[in-house]
Design goal:
The chain is mainly alpha-helical and about 100 residues long. The chain has one domain: Methane Monooxygenase Hydroxylase, Chain G, domain 1 (Up-down Bundle). Helix content is about 75%, strand content about 0%. It has 3 helices and no strands. Helix 1 runs antiparallel to helix 2 and helix 2 packs antiparallel against helix 3. It is elongated and about 50 Å long. About 15% of the residues are buried.
Length: about 100
């Protein structure tokens, strides 16, 4: 019974992380920096929870930690540069 609870918890954490990463990507593509920043702040915590879950191999844990570090770098980048970028700054078509 306990193993089943652990499995469900791990799967739920995985799917939450996957959904939030997709939301982060979508927000960044739309230049919705406040939303992207929110997901970039929250994803590492969910990833760390998944790293600590039972049932992952050593290589899976290592890969996940590397990806968590990448999201932290992305968070810093969005915080420092992305949030100052206006959503109205899109490439303009030349009129000449």
């Amino acid at each position: 019974m306990i193993e089943r609870v652990r499995l469900v918890d791990r799967e739920t954490t995985y799917w939450t992380l996957l959904m939030w990463m997709k939301n982060l990507r979508q927000a960044a593509m739309q230049r919705d920096w406040p939303r992207a920043l929110l997901f970039a702040e929250e994803c590492p915590a969910v990833g760390e929870r998944l790293v600590r879950a039972e049932g992952l191999s050593r290589s899976e844990r290592k890969s996940l930690r590397e990806r968590i570090d990448n999201v932290r770098v992305l968070h810093t980048f969005i915080r420092d540069t992305g949030s100052s970028d206006s959503t109205s700054r899109k490439p303009r078509r030349s009129t000449t």
